[in-house]
């Protein structure tokens, strides 16, 4: 203790502490009052020294726990309860501002933790426990947090071949931990391959027809070896899974098509081809909960990719046809709360559905703030619905051995129990006209447990059989006449006698449970023999005094 006091009072030790760490040691000492004299001075000095030392340790522990995210999860002051929302998005959008002032059922606040996929790690267990770790840099400061989110909002692509980022393992971990999210984690994982999503569009096209659901023609190649048949040119080749116009090449002739096939061989991935549509403009129809918007985008720079270069964007009226398209796409993968459909309107006057985007779609246009508020309202609604449901019990860890419960027996043992004789009418064991609701093999008369223990150990010993050495057992009792007549006849009673307190106290004295008499006597023979001898002596002494 003296060493710690000297060490903590060292000026070089305090100077090397981080800012705010053990602040009671770093702040200057206030001016001291005149020192008291006598024994009061010694008592005050001892109390101040011990109090200052232990308060330093307490503050250090509190600050360490707070930095690790182990403190009380509240945002509205002391005593406030909060639910943690993990938002996966880039730091350019402040989602904490969108959820400010919003509350959940039960007067819960919403604590927003925002990070990118590259800053997240997690560990999940099958019993339902998990922990999410964040390691990120904000304003040149490294921040480390560990917490358990109650809900997840994913606004960042979890897989992109163009950026060489694959965070599908985190999606699997969140699903393993059972964290609810918008959209569902199953749908987010299914959106990690665009041909897989396009297959769902093909299913809708076959159901609705080309008039109601004008899907663009597409050809899928699992690898470069199959890119032998020449399509109709010009054609657009899409390599792998990428976003924002990356990995898309316009091919004019079969020579360029052979060259791009060699590039696909280097990527070792799949590719798709679509006929090139000379577009007049493209349309994006988005759905956030029950809110719909449609935007028209016209290229100004002349690039065939309208999402590349300069373009003019304006909001257009929401038609029933547009609404039917986005509603149809929102039903895939069990339902999409947030989605958008991309459509190209060609110069031939026809519409072509290109693809569908999930909750990672960017917000565009003049109403971006409104769209983010709609997403926040949708998340609050989903959190209220999911968190109000009764949680599913976590799977239990299997035990090494399973002991039979008290009062339960197998059918093979029940077949060996002899037929029960009715008790004498009006006897002390049970009043007339009463029947027991318990199984008859659960009840035992005074001394019955002791008689059963005298049965020779062996695999054939079962409860309920009258032992062959009953005479030897009863002869060991000095006062046999004092036993009730029901014990001598040893009938099977369906309700315990009021005088069972003696045998119960005897059983409790030796720490015997009722289930211990149902166990097999093939093991621990020597220990059971000692127990029987002790029970004989105790039983004899008990009834000899009565």
End-to-end separation in angstroms reads 63 Å
- Choose one word for the global shape: elongated
Oligomer, anyone?
single chain
As a percent range, the share of helical residues equals 25-40%
Q: How is the largest sheet built, in terms of strand order? A: 2-3-1-7-10
- Weakly predicted, low-confidence segments: 64-78, 397-494, 496-522
Counting DSSP H or I runs of 4 or more residues, the number of helices is 17
What's the alpha carbon Rg, rounded to whole Å? 39 Å
Strand content: 15-25%
**Could you describe the largest sheet, including whether it forms a barrel?**
5 strands, mixed
Mean pLDDT: 75
The number of E-state strands comes to 19
The class by helix and strand makeup works out as alpha+beta
């Amino acid at each position: 203790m003296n060493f710690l006091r000297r060490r903590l009072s060292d000026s070089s030790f305090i100077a090397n502490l981080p800012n705010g760490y053990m602040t009671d040691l770093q702040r200057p000492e206030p001016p001291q009052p005149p020192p008291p004299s006598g024994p009061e001075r010694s008592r005050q000095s001892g109390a101040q020294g011990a109090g200052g030392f232990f308060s330093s340790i307490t503050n250090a522990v509190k600050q360490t726990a707070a930095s690790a995210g182990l403190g009380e999860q509240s945002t509205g002051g002391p005593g406030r309860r909060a639910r943690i929302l993990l938002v996966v998005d880039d730091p350019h959008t402040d989602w904490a501002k969108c959820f400010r002032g919003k509350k959940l059922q039960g007067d819960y606040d919403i604590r927003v933790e925002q990070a990118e996929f590259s800053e997240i790690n997690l560990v999940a267990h099958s019993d339902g426990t998990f922990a999410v770790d964040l390691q990120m840099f904000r304003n040149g400061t490294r921040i480390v947090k560990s917490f358990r989110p109650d809900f997840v909002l994913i606004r960042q692509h979890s897989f992109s071949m163009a950026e060489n980022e694959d965070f599908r393992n985190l999606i699997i971990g969140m699903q393993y931990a059972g964290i609810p999210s918008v959209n569902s984690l199953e749908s987010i994982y299914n959106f990690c391959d665009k041909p897989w999503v396009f297959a769902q569009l093909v299913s809708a096209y076959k159901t609705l027809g080309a008039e109601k659901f004008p899907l663009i023609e597409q050809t899928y190649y699992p690898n470069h070896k199959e890119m032998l048949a020449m399509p109709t040119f010009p054609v657009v080749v899409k390599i792998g899974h990428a976003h924002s116009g990356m990995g898309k090449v316009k091919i004019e002739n079969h020579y360029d098509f052979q060259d791009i096939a060699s590039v696909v061989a280097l990527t070792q991935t799949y590719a798709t081809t679509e006929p090139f549509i000379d577009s007049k403009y493209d349309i994006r129809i988005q759905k956030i909960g029950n809110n719909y918007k449609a935007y028209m985008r016209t290229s100004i720079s002349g690039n065939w990719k309208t999402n590349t270069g300069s373009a003019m964007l304006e909001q257009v009226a929401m038609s029933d046809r547009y609404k039917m398209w986005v509603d149809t796409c929102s039903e895939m993968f069990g339902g999409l709360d947030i989605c958008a459909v991309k459509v190209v309107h060609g110069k031939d006057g026809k519409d072509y559905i290109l693809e569908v985007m999930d909750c990672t779609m960017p917000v565009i246009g003049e109403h971006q703030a409104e769209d983010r508020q709609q997403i926040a309202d949708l998340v609050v609604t989903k959190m209220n619905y999911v968190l109000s449901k009764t949680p599913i019990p976590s799977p239990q860890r299997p035990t090494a051995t399973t002991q039979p419960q008290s009062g339960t027996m197998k059918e093979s043992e029940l077949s060996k129990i002899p037929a029960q004789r009715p008790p004498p009418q009006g006897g002390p064991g049970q009043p007339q006209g009463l029947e027991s609701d318990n199984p008859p093999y659960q009840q035992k008369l005074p001394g019955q447990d002791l008689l059963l223990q005298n049965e020779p150990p062996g695999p054939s010993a079962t409860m309920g059989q009258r032992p062959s050495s009953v005479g030897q057992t009863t002869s060991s009792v000095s006062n046999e006449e004092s036993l009730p007549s029901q014990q001598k006849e040893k009938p099977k009673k369906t309700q315990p006698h009021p005088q069972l307190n003696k045998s119960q106290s005897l059983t409790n004295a030796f720490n015997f449970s009722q289930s211990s008499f149902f166990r097999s006597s093939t093991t621990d023979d020597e220990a059971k023999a000692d127990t029987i001898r002790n029970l004989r002596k105790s039983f004899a002494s008990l009834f000899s005094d009565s």
